[in-house]
Amino acid sequence: MDQMSLFNIPAFPASYDDVDSLYREYIYEGETDEDAFTWSEIKDGRTYSFYGQKVFEFFPGADGKAKLKLPGRIMKQLDDKKSGAKDDAFYALQERAISPVILVHLMEILQKEKRIIFRNTITEKFACCHAFRECSNKGECLFPDDRFFNGCEYRKNLEAGRNFYRED
Q1: Could you tell me the end-to-end alpha-carbon distance of the chain, in angstroms, rounded to an integer?
Q2: H/E element, 67
Q3: Rounded to 5, what percent of the chain is helix, strand, coil?
Q4: Cα diameter, the chain
Q5: What is the DSSP string of 6-62?
Q6: pLDDT (tens digit, 9 = 90+) per residue, 100-152?
Q7: What are the residues whose beta carbons fall under 8 Å from the beta carbon of 114, sequence distance 6 or more?
Q8: Are strands 38-42 and 67-71 parallel, antiparallel or unpaired?
Q9: What pLDDT is stored for residue 1 in this prediction?
Q10: Half-sphere exposure of residue 108, counting CA atoms within 13 Å on the CB side?
Q11: Residue 142: helix, strand or coil by DSSP?
């Protein structure tokens, strides 16, 4: 993962366009799946999801009135004081309560969360695919961006450093 520069610090979003810009600049990694980043209207705001799993809510506003609502599992990573937060409960975060450096950290957390959610989208489980020997020789899955291959049990072995078919 590329580390973000403090010279390119994002501003807390005030509008839906700002949220989209933050996604494109700091979280997007070339995904082509239609459900990689989606939103739905809610009262006074939107809920945003990665691969169908809700990751935050956003309520626009000017002059520091905008707010994000983040699940406890993300808040715990963002703020040590939230260690008792419930993983699936949502907690409000307003612009005045978040420094630019913390916002950079939040973008990194959301990018990581997107990757975890993607990796756990499994359409079906199977022992290995047709390319298990090529994957073994490379030491990793040849299809990391195709969600179908998230169900490959041999891929888990390769990721854990267990390579059974490497041809030296």
Answers
A1: 30
A2: strand 67-71
A3: 40, 20, 40
A4: 62
A5: GGGPPPPP-SHHHHHHHIIIII--S---TTSSEEEEETTEEEEEETTEEEEEEE--T
A6: 888 999 999 999 999 999 999 998 999 999 999 999 999 999 999 999 999 99
A7: 27, 29, 36, 37, 50, 51, 55
A8: unpaired
A9: 44
A10: 15
A11: coil
In the numeric block, which tokens belong to residue 159? 């990721």
Integer CA distances (angstroms), 79 to 38, 83, 128, 130, 139, in order: 26, 8, 40, 44, 36
Q: How confident is the model over 4-40, as pLDDT tens digits?
A: 455 567 789 999 999 999 999 999 999 999 999 999 9
98 pLDDT more than 90: no
Structure tokens at 114: 């997107």
d(CA 152, CA 17): 37
Question: What does the block give as tokens for 167?
Answer: 């041809």
Q: How far apart are CA 21 and CA 10, in angstroms?
A: 10
What value does the mean pLDDT take over residues 49-78? 93
pLDDT at position 7 is 58
Phi, psi of 153, rounded to the nearest 5 degrees: -70, -35
Residues 6+ apart with CB under 8 A from 55: 48, 49, 70, 71, 74, 110, 113, 114, 117
